[in-house]
Specification:
Blueprint: E1 5-10, H1 16-20, E2 26-30, H2 38-76, E3 97-102, E4 105-110, E5 128-133, E6 141-146, E7 149-154, H3 166-177, E8 183-188, E9 191-196, E10 202-205, E11 213-216, E12 219-220, E13 229-231, E14 235-238, E15 249-255, E16 261-268, E17 285-289, E18 295-299, E19 325-329, E20 332-337, E21 340-343, E22 366-369, E23 380-384, E24 387-391, E25 396-399
Parallel strand pairs: 12-14
Antiparallel strand pairs: 1-2, 3-4, 4-17, 5-9, 5-11, 6-7, 6-10, 8-9, 13-16, 14-15, 15-16, 17-18, 19-20, 20-21, 21-22, 23-24, 24-25
């Protein structure tokens, strides 16, 4: 045998042909020195265990990340199961969606969504009245009748008897009225503010002239009869004319210094118990680019109705209907709904209400109906040099004016 080699196990039985011919088969073994020590083997085994643990942890982390990703994909998926029932684009088909971009704003319209007002309403008409004393007469009985109860203050016969003024008369009458159950009276300058826990009636008599002593509750015929001092937020309807409602105006009193009562001004406001907020969830939404480059999709903050009523500042005609088209014309945001063309205030794209129910301004909203011998449904617009062309399935119309209809014309 070569040096360093020795016979090992007999393997002759594994080779019957060699055995038949008388040969013997053995394993040849050679002893060699170990390349690594036992300590090195222990270290390598430990390192392998550590690596296996890190590998298992990485696999677990990858599995967890995949589960999180799958959950987010499921949450973001568009489907009936995860879309809120009131979502603006829910149940919208591709042909129902329309886009309009104005500067950094992109408006998204769902033509299958019916618009609506919110159910919230303006404050109800309070149970209140105000007594105005404008003329001071001697030897007179000033009477204020509340719910058939007569409250009287008699002035002196002559100046020599005692001096008197409107404030003195108001204070005395307020004291008398305060003795009534459910009724509260407060002197406000030369007048009396009266409130009740329930509706009440009021009338006056006794002054030397009709305008010397009078009372009003929820309405008055002329704004000039309103007092210069009153209780704050007193709400009054100025009728102006009894024959028509178009000239009516609602006003509320605001004190000059923010006090509960005293001198101040009457400001135009909205009538009592009226819906005044457009439901933004039923109206076109906006996609706005933020400062960081991210786009945000959200409802539009449409301006509320702040003055008037359903006659003097009506709800836009698209409310309760579907919007067929959006457009931009002469610095106004426009909408088509059935046969109507509705345009916002000039330069105030989210406002479809007038700022005053009494003053007609050039930048007021526009709400017009197209008329024809056949039913009309308006779908698209085209701006031209002669006006705005409005297209229906079978007819075309033109919206034009002899004067500029915008506060800031961007044609």
């Amino acid at each position: 045998m070569p040096t360093g080699y020795v016979l090992g196990n007999n393997r002759t039985d594994d080779y019957p042909w060699f055995k038949r011919d008388g040969y013997r088969v053995y394993e040849v073994e050679k002893d060699i020195d170990a390349t690594h020590t036992e300590a090195q083997l222990t270290t390598a085994t430990t390192d392998m265990g550590t690596a296996q643990t890190a590998f298992d942890d990485a696999e677990t982390a990858e599995s967890d990340a995949q589960d999180d990703y799958d959950a987010e994909v499921t949450a973001c998926a568009i489907g009936a199961a995860n879309i809120p029932s009131g979502a603006y684009l829910k149940d919208a088909d591709p042909e129902d969606i329309e886009i309009l971009t104005i500067n950094d704003y992109t408006f998204v319209l769902n033509k299958n969504k019916t618009t609506a007002m919110k159910s919230t309403t303006s404050a109800a008409q309070p149970n209140e009245a105000f007594v105005v004393i404008r003329t001071v007469a001697y030897n007179a009985d000033y009477k204020v009748t509340v719910n058939s109860t007569v409250n009287t203050h008699s002035t002196p016969d002559t100046v020599s008897g005692a001096t008197t003024d409107a404030g003195t008369i108001a204070a005395a009458l307020a004291t008398a009225i305060n003795s009534m159950s459910g009724i509260t009276a407060v002197q406000v300058g030369p007048g009396i503010y009266i409130s009740g826990t329930s509706a009440f009636t009021i009338s006056t008599s006794g002054s030397s002239s009709e305008e010397g002593l009078f009372a009003f509750q929820d309405q008055i015929n002329l704004a000039s009869r309103l007092p210069n001092q009153c209780e704050t937020v007193t709400l009054v309807r100025v009728t102006n004319s009894d024959d028509v409602n178009a000239d009516d105006v609602y006003v509320e009193f605001k004190t000059s210094n923010g006090a509960s009562r005293g001198p101040g001004v009457w400001e135009e406001t909205i009538g009592p118990g009226l819906k005044f907020e457009i439901d933004e969830t039923t109206m076109p939404h906006q996609l706005v680019r933020q400062a960081n480059g991210v786009f945000k999709y959200e409802p539009v903050d449409w301006t509320d109705r702040l003055v008037g009523d359903n006659d003097t500042n009506p709800i836009p005609s698209f409310i309760g209907k579907k919007i067929n088209n959006m457009f931009f014309y002469r610095n106004r945001l426009g909408l088509l709904s059935n046969e109507a063309v509705i345009m916002s205030r000039a330069g105030d794209y989210f406002n479809f209400f007038a700022n005053s129910s009494q003053v007609v301004a050039a930048d007021d909203p526009i709400d017009l109906q197209a008329t024809s011998v056949r039913p009309v449904s308006l779908n698209y617009t085209l701006s031209t040099s002669v006006g705005l062309l409005v297209f229906g399935p079978n007819e075309q119309f033109i919206l034009s004016t002899d004067a500029d209809n915008s506060e800031s014309n961007n044609d």
